[in-house]
Amino acid sequence: MDGAPFRLGPRGQRWFDIGLASGLMLVGPFAGLGLGMGQGLGIGLAVGLVATLQVLPLYWRRKYPVAVFFAVYVAHALQVLLIDTPLPSQFAFPIALYSITRWRSLRWSLPALGLSFVAATVASIDWMLSPYSTPSSIISNAIGIALITLVAWVLAQLGRTREAYVNSLIERSERVAREADQRAQLAAQSERNRIAREMHDVVAHGLSVIIVQADGARYASAARPEAATEALENIALTGREALTEMRSLLGLLREGDTGVAPQPDLADLPALIDEARTSMTLEADIDEGLDAVPSGVALTAYRLVQEALTNVRKHAGPDVRVWVRVHRDGSALRLQVRDDGRGASATNDGEGHGLVGMRERVAAHGGELTAGPAVGGGYAIDARIPW
N or C: which terminus of the chain carries fewer CB neighbours within 10 A? Predict the structure, then answer.
């Protein structure tokens, strides 16, 4: 991605190590052979071999940095016994120190740095000790070599710190991506649950009205044909309304469809209650001036009344009376639905998804809902939905 730091992959790192070691191999052993030839063929070959031993371990510096450092260190110690002249292959030493510091902890890098200072002192004495040298020149030369090793150590520490920082950023980015994905999944699950509740309310209410109207039309068709006609009209109207709401909900599941058909609210309660009065005796008390109720709370209240009336049709029995009250209670909406039927003793068919959905809707707004047998018979639902 843009702005990301450049980093070699495993393949690039391997080729970089091969190129670095091969470059020194092309120069170091041949230069060492040439410098050693001044002391004889045998010494020249021995110095060339030592130079090779100094460079060769660098091929594995990233995988085995500790072993590589000590192999290079021993090869440099052998050089002291053969020749008192610096070799180009000695560039392998700061590279080996860098490697052990870069890819191992301070437990290894600090002793390696200390050994490097010892090596700098020994090398300075070996190279500078002569009748013409002075202690100050030997010390200054040792300090110069030590500074080279110290710079390699510091650069490795900076690289190690930078790599840890970059890795932490990558890990954080991956964690944020995972958390965002989890939040998206939870949001999708919540939306699916909401749609499932909406579908249950729409289908259950629509079918219960259609069943009641169809039964009424069947009984009235012989004695009062006009009543059967009216019932069939109500069935068609209810079916169309349920189909419209189902299309709106299913639109949310289709790609490219926004499903923006208007959702019912408190203004639609009178129509819902008038529809219910065709199959039951119903008294309603709905406060005026509920326009300020948020749309989410209004939709929840509508669905609660709708589900409660559906349960009355399914469980309360014939000749039931129902009381519906919706009013404002401070900064909350209070909703009560009660009937005098036999719903409290009726057998629950299914798994009770209606009441579960009602509780979930109210809980989503931080409200409370109680549902159960009413004093004196019947069933009561009482909900308080704050906003």
Answer: N
Give the pTM.
0.49
User: What are the pLDDT digits (tens) for 110-123?
Assistant: 999 999 999 999 98
- Residue pair 379/344 in contact (Cβ under 8 Å)? The answer is yes
Report the C-alpha gap between 385 and 63 in whole angstroms.
65
- What the block records as the tokens of 213 is 């109207």
Tell me the H-state helices in the chain.
Answer: 10-36, 41-55, 65-82, 92-103, 106-128, 135-220, 225-251, 269-276, 295-311, 353-364
Domain boundaries, the chain: 10-177, 267-387
29 CB-near residues (< 8 Å, 6+ apart): 48, 49, 51, 52, 55, 89
Please give the Cα distance from 136 to 26 (Å, whole number): 35
Residue length, the chain?
387
Give every CB contact of residue 204 below 8 A, 6+ residues apart in sequence: 307, 310, 354
Q: Classify residue 334 by its DSSP letter.
A: E
pLDDT score, position 259 = 47
SS (H, E, C) 215-273: HHHHHHCCCCHHHHHHHHHHHHHHHHHHHHHHHHHHHCCCCCCCCCCCCCCHHHHHHHH
CATH dotted code for 267-387: 3.30.565.10
